[in-house]
Amino acid sequence: MSKLLVSTTVNGDPQQFLCDPDTSLLDALREEMDLTGSKEGCGSGDCGACTVVLDGKMVCSCLVLAPEAEGRQVSTIEGVAEGNQLHPIQRQFLEHGALQCGFCTPGFIVASKALLDHNPDPSETEVRYWLAGNLCRCTGYDKIVRAVMDAAAELRQDRRTAA
Amino acid sequence: MNAPENKQQFRLVGTRPVRPDGVEKVTGKAIYGPDHVSPGMLQGAVLRSPHPHARIRGIDTKKAEALAGVKAVVTGQDFPQAADKLVAGAESASNLRWVAQKCMAIGKVFYEGQAVAAVAATSHAVAEAALKLIEVDYEVLPHVIAIEDALAEDAPVLHDDVFTQGLAEKPTKPSNASMRFAIERGDAKAAIAGAAASFTGRFTLQPVHQGYIEPHACVAQWNADGQAQIWCSSQGHFAIRAMTAGILQIDIASVRVHPLEIGGGFGGKTTVYLEPVAMLLSRKAGRPVRLTMKRTDIFRSTGPAPGAVIDITLGAAADGTLVGAEIELKYHGGAFPGANEVYSGVGGAVGHYRVPNASIVGWNVLSNIPTMHAYRAPGAPQINFAVESAMDELAARLGIDPIDLRLKNIVHPGEPSASGVPLGAIGYAEALEAAKAHPHWSSPVAPGQGRGVACGAWGNYGGPSTASVKLGEDGSVLVTEGSPDIGGSRASMAIMAAETLGVAYEKVRVTIADTSSIGFSMVTGGSRTTFATGKAVIQATEGVIEQLKDRAARTWGVDVAAVTWEDGTAVHGDQRLTLAQIAAKTGTTGGPISAEAVVDPHDFLPGFGVHICDTEVDRETGHVLVKRYTVVQDVGRAIHADYVEGQMQGGAVQGIGWALNEAYVYDRSGKLDNAGFLDYRMPVASDMPMIDTVMVEVPNPAHPYGVKGVGEVPIVPPLAAVGNAVSRATGIRMHDLPISPDRVYGLLRAAE
Amino acid sequence: MSSPAYHAPETIEQAVALLAGDAGARPLAGGTDLIVQMRSGRNAPSAIVDLKRIAGLSGIRALPGGGFAIGAATPCTALKDDAALAAAWPGVVEAANLIGSVQVRNRATMAGNLCNASPAADSVPALVAAGATCLVAGPNGQREVPVEAIPAGPGKTSLAPGEVLVEIRLPAQLGADAYLRSIPRSEMDIAVVGAGVSLVLGAGGVCTAARVAIGAVAPTVVLVEAAGAALIGGKLDDAALEAAADAVRAACRPIDDKRGTAEYRTAMAGVLVKRTAKIALERAHKNQGRSQA
Question: Which residues of chain C have a pLDDT value below 70?
Fold first, then answer.
């Protein structure tokens, strides 16, 4: 079986890579594009450490076949900060100590950004249910939820200031 | 939050600065175990046993070796003869004979998922395909999983050379009970017989997994000249080095282990599973080899924490004073001897109370499941579930407030600890008083809910650590240590160095160096790192200060004894030289400034926690919801408050998961039936409320900043805190974990 | 090492031809079951036929007469975003949005949930209670069948070789529906039991039609006609609800497994059907009030 050539867009940049048809998008990101910020914790969609945004929707990249990304837009943790400017969610995670080992953190940040991109004022319950697909074994979630709520407040303030 | 009175004022200790490794970790740049790449690296894969117990009659690897792209195949026969040999480095000594077999079966498999062969190939797909070509001839043997089954007269015996240790007379027959350990004092039976109230019960728990999200992974490169490098994430790369070198019978100095960022461990990453295998593959292939575990393999073949069967009787006088404890605990040991949980289970059972008469007997029971491995306060949560449930029953039977009952019986400073050594400046009473004063405890219990409280303790540890502190020419500070940062310890080290030196936090940068670049440091485990490695960092920093004072004295031509160090500045009368000024002149005053410290402190102190839990029970379905949860703990002194609270919250939620849903489920054929996150059911964000924390600060006088270990204590009380809350909500004592909906439903129906 | 072929056809006819021409080919919609099964080795297709590039297979169409057609490649979260569908069939939409996590639901489809043929599939009891049908395309043309005719047992469907599910059709809503499931955690779990109820109320709030379906208590989702019958003709008083629960418990043929005992499953089916029926009733009252206002 020969490899497939896939052309896609990752974090706004055109990317081409070769893969077996059953390669996961996660493996393609990690192995072919050196984007190792997305992590594999389970390979079965149960931990969310590999969360990326595919055409505007957050998905587990371990449950996407790499060829499915043909012509699509993929956003990963590596694209959340703008250059060296951290996204408010990233900054709030740091300021709250919302990470201990940090392995689940990229998935949480991508998922949290996906939430705040469409729901600027989530309740604590909404945050908790939205993030239920992201496992964290270190923090007990408390500081993560607080970081996301505070990032939401900060982003609302930014929008008001900009308006 | 909850700052105690008369707190000694520090500039940085107790604050919450951003951790030095933070930006790398929120931007996806940090390199964890599965992320490292070496040039020319091969991909490895491991074949695992489908049987829980079988003799390996033979392994034919010829077809796999012939597959294009396969560069090496190894089996148990490639391991050097494994004799009994103890190595230090982890929390306790490990016998390499057994550690080797956790890496690969040698002649016999003892649990489903045990490695039997491994392949290195040019791609992961080729390696996986090669595994399918390996033919293993198994003679399947009868298996045994549950503790009581393994102790039965007719049970299959795992090892014909394992005899019960700790018996008065050496037994003549091999046994699955590999070890007995007991503490006896006074006459427990008689004391309980004369008690005003007593409680007797049997409590059971199933094995649980540490549940770190990062899979075990490593890259190994073993060169033709015998020198090797390993890149892996672990709780201690010196332990990885010791075990790998020991198993493969090579010099310690020939193995250089590079610590990668670690994605959670909780005790489970203080041993080797993959590294010796990757090394053997690399030696055969002549190239670096990566091995990464799949999640199912992690559940099936890496260290769970023991399940347990615990029989307990506690007796108390009418005023609540405990008079006697009679306890027999049986813990899962897994496939091989050597698990240590029974020692801490027996030693810590009622170590947090004064109990004049006690008979506590523990058994380590082998069966066809993976060998137990440390999980946060190893051995303590299981026995504590039984003891604190019994305390709750005694409180109810005597009509005494459960916190008052504990206050009546707790150990105090100066009294003997479980080991007999007098307790130092512990803050148990302070923690209980803080819990009693907390609004959670005084708030009314909502209708349909129950409130539980439970206490717990953990001894903590010290042990060897090495650190060096070097001054940059511009006055910035480099700290180098050998303790992997598993939850923010770089920040704590930077705070302590900056506090000691009198410089800004941001002027200090911390590196966790490989095994050839810094001296030996024990694993990040035993709640020892901020305490012991912290002491090494402080001591090395003090060494740097002495040199700074010496340079200033020489510059001024005065006696160094007359120079003081104040707020980052050398002072002699009106003369002052800042650290930066001295650093800039080191080229002409004697050369670079650096100091190293090697410590092995044993003046650590135990920690105590009090947890309060409110649960709501759906009486129709048996579902339990945790509605409110408060963690109160004597933390010594918090160096970085966020990460101390984080330990308390994270430990509590792990304990809540253990109480409510987590459990290993084996099917009749001895295979793990829930070897994945979906069916293992760790808590998700929507299962949990916020976790309130109260840091009670009773400093450890033996540490310059008062540090006590904080990481393990918080997983000890939650099992009973949840159990007691559900028991009070339902009126039914919870004896068995997990307190899953179907179990609670069954108990409720049976009580009708 | 034999990696499957990957096809992304642009028409249903091409998809059918690819599936009919290769017995080992499997359709890919959201992939949240298929890819997991491929990884674990439980499923080793010779080819993957990705349905998501077929025009018309993603999205929701309003049908004449008030029903809805949901393309087979429509992810579960898209159902929530369709206000008309979410208002008409909240039970179906909620059921589909209990599967996995948000990440999973952004990929997973109801058609995939149905064709994976797990007895515990969350969306299926709700669809069966709703009286939904499926449009199936195959080498011999298209056919429409009730949802409950698709699953044939755990992991097995009644689809013939080369057939593929094209869309799920929901009728016009004349009453209301609801779905509840029992799981140990609050999210990220497989149903221990699931219950879907769909009701129509007539004059005076009397129930004139009812369908009850339960999941995870038998090899396939069960449409419990006796439970529906027990709800018809009254106002869902306690006696009617208990009779429905009795009928449901009688229809249970569960197994003991790691997710629950047979006894617990049967008991929960009864509890859930009562709770689900009450939610459906409340919604039906609201809908009735709205249509009368």
Answer: 1, 292-293
| Alpha carbon of A163: minimum distance to chain B alpha carbons (Å) | 29
Structure tokens at B439: 């609004």
Domain that holds residue B363: 304-460+605-751
For chain C, the maximum distance between any two Cα atoms, rounded to a whole number of angstroms, is 66
Query: How far is residue B21 CA from its own chain's centroid?
Result: 22
Contact B264 A142 (CB under 8 A): no
CA distance C4 to chain A (A): 6
Parallel/antiparallel/unpaired status of strands C5-7 and A13-19: unpaired
Which B positions 99-128 lie with beta carbon below 8 A of chain C?
Answer: 125-126, 128
Residue B158 resides in a domain: no
Q: Is the dihedral of CA C55, C57, C59, C64 positive or negative?
A: positive
Domain hosting residue C62, numbered range: 5-118+133-170
Return the pLDDT at B4: 44
Q: What is the ipTM of this complex?
A: 0.98
pLDDT digits (tens, 9 = 90+) for A32-42: 999 999 999 99
The Cα of B416 is separated from the nearest Cα of chain C by a number of Å equal to 43
**B480-496 burial code (b ≥16 CB/10 A, e <16):** bbbbbbbbbbbbbbbbb
> Mean pLDDT across chain B, nearest whole number?
96
Q: How many other CB atoms are found less than 10 A from the CB of residue C22? A: 18
Q: For position B87, what pLDDT does the model report?
A: 78
The per-residue pLDDT for range B22-44, each reduced to its tens digit, is 999 999 999 999 999 999 999 99
- Dump pLDDT digits (tens) for B347-395: 999 999 999 999 999 999 999 999 999 999 999 999 999 999 999 999 9
| B490 is a domain residue | yes
In this complex, the chains that touch B, judged by 3 or more CB pairs closer than 8 A, are A, C
B738 cis-preceded (ω within 30 degrees of 0): yes
Query: In the CATH scheme, what is the code of domain A4-79?
Result: 3.10.20.30
Helix or strand holding residue C239 (H, E): helix C238-251
pLDDT recorded at residue B92? 66
Which of the four pLDDT bands, split at 50, 70 and 90, describes residue B89?
Answer: low
Measured between alpha carbons, how far is B532 from B461 in angstroms, rounded to an integer?
Answer: 8
DSSP labels, B443-508: SPPPTTEEEEEEEEEE------EEEEEEE-TTS-EEEEE-S--SSSHHHHHHHHHHHHHT--GGGE
The structure tokens 């489908």 sit at: B50
Task: Kindly give the pairing relationship between strand C5-7 and strand C47-50.
Answer: parallel
Query: Do C14 and C114 share a domain, yes or no?
Result: yes
Give the dihedral sign, CA B417/B418/B421/B427: negative
Predicted local distance difference test score (pLDDT) of residue B81: 77
Q: In 3D, which of B626, B624, B697, B629 has the Cα closest to residue B441?
A: B629
Question: Is the torsion defined by CA of C175, C180, C186, C187 positive or negative?
Answer: negative
* B263/A102 touch (CB, cutoff 8 Å), yes or no: yes
| Chain B closest-CA separation from residue C16 CA (Å) | 30
> Mapping DSSP to helix (H, G, I), strand (E, B) and coil, where does residue B343 land?
helix
Interchain proximity B682–A135, CB inside 8 Å? yes
Which member of A45, A54, A57 has the closest CB to residue C32?
A45
* A24: number of Cβ within 10 Å: 25
The answer to whether B679 contacts chain C (CB < 8 Å) is yes
Which residues in chain B touch residue A80, judged by CB atoms under 8 angstroms apart?
Answer: 27
Question: Among all residues of chain A, which has the CA nearest to that of C2?
Answer: A1
Assign domain A88-162 one CATH number from 3.10.300.10, 1.10.1740.10, 3.30.460.10, 1.10.150.120: 1.10.150.120
Q: Tell which C residues from 168 to 187 touch B, by Cβ distance under 8 Å.
A: 182, 184-187
Position C216 in a domain: yes
pLDDT, one tens digit per residue, over B230-280 is 999 999 999 999 999 999 999 999 999 999 999 999 999 999 999 999 999
Give the distance from CA C60 to its chain's centroid.
16
What is the spatial distance between Cα B382 and Cα B627, in angstroms, rounded to a whole number?
23
